[in-house]
Design brief:
With about 210 residues, the chain is of the alpha/beta class. The chain contains six helices and six strands. A four-stranded parallel beta sheet has the order 2-1-3-6.
Length: about 210
């Protein structure tokens, strides 16, 4: 296997995960794809939201079929590079330590754990007042943070992660949407990590 104890940063959107990722990815110990994994993961048809009964970004162990696991690892492998930008495929190494951060993965812990059973997780928490305010700013920013331009049952585009129950937010004020995204991300992270041995995850406070 190419992947030895990969590390996944789990966090609500706009909680400082980009900063943490930037700091850790400067280490020669880690290999990354250089950014977030939206295209790598959702480029697999079975993992796209609103496909195959996926109504959100939530993925569980049931989504980790052998074919999906193989496809995902292949897609990651093709994009891996070290801290100096050198590609894994040209490195001659048999296995490396991947570092990954995508806020949508707050809803995918059981899936990631099934694909990478020796994975380690870092839970990054940010004060809800600061975090929700930043989520609202992202929505107001426009195209930069749009993740889905068209969703059946939603008016206009959608920004950031798509949590279970998002349809009930139609017509709600922005602050309620942002709070729901923050709460869903953190609730799923905490609930899912409780099912994983404590020596395989740790937590950090953004402050």
């Amino acid at each position: 296997d190419v992947f030895i104890r990969p590390v996944f940063i789990l966090a609500s959107p706009r909680s400082g995960s980009s900063l943490l990722f930037s700091i850790l990815s400067s280490s020669t110990a880690f290999w990354t794809i250089g950014g977030e994994s939206h295209g790598v993961i959702e480029g697999i048809p079975e993992l796209r939201p609103l496909a195959n009964d996926n109504d959100s970004n939530r993925l569980t162990a049931g989504n980790a079929s052998p074919a999906v696991c193989e496809a995902l690892k292949t897609r990651f492998t093709r994009s891996l590079r070290d801290c100096d930008g050198r590609p894994y495929l040209a490195s001659g190494l048999s296995a490396v330590r991947m570092l990954e951060k995508t806020p949508k993965n707050a809803l995918r812990v059981p899936f990631l754990n099934a694909v990478f059973p020796d994975a380690l997780f870092i839970y990054l928490y940010r004060d809800p007042r600061e975090n929700i305010s930043s989520i609202m700013e992202a929505w107001r920013d426009g195209a930069r943070y749009v993740t889905y331009t068209r969703l059946e049952g939603w008016d206009g585009s959608w920004s950031l992660l798509l949590p279970p129950g998002w349809r009930h937010l139609r017509g709600k004020p922005l602050e309620q949407i942002a709070a729901f995204q923050w709460a869903s991300a953190n609730t799923h992270i905490l609930g899912d990590l409780a099912q994983i041995p404590p020596d395989r995850w740790t937590s950090l406070n953004y402050a």
